[in-house]
Amino acid sequence: MNGAVFLDRDGTVIDDTGYLDDPAGVRLMAGAAAGLRLLDRTGRPIVVVSNQSGIGRGRITKDAAAMVHQRFVEIVAAEGVDFAGCYYCPHAPMVGCTCRKPATGLFD
Fold it and tell me: Rounded to 5 degrees, what angle do the CA atoms 101, 47, 106 make?
């Protein structure tokens, strides 16, 4: 089977609380763990791509974002799923970068 599955993080896998800066706030959405396990069984790589504009807007620090990301990966791994990759755009929307979704920079 070819191809990878690309997923957003906030509001897709974890609750979207807006500018999440505390690892204790990472919560899987209802049904996310079961869905991720089903995807994992297909043998396709699972990749997370997410806009994290809170960094570029000065609402969260890079360190806080890294701690949230680490907790996210730990929680998902505890459910038996490992991601092939996780990629984030840290830029604010007004920067006009090519990695902010819906641009394709994170996919490329």
Answer: 30
Question: Is 0.90 topped by the overall pTM?
Answer: yes
Give the Cα separation of 14 and 29 in Å (integer).
5
Catalytic: 10?
yes
For the chain, what percent of residues have pLDDT higher than 90? Answer: 94
Question: What's the chain's Rg over C-alpha atoms?
Answer: 14
- Contact assessment for residue 69 and residue 54, using Cβ atoms and an 8 Å cutoff: no
108 assigned to active site = no
Could you please report the per-residue DSSP string of 19-78?
S---GGG--BPTTHHHHHHHHHHTT--EEEEEE-HHHHTTSS-HHHHHHHHHHHHHHHHH
- Separation between Cα atoms, residue 52 and residue 80, nearest integer Å: 25
Residue 85 DSSP class: E
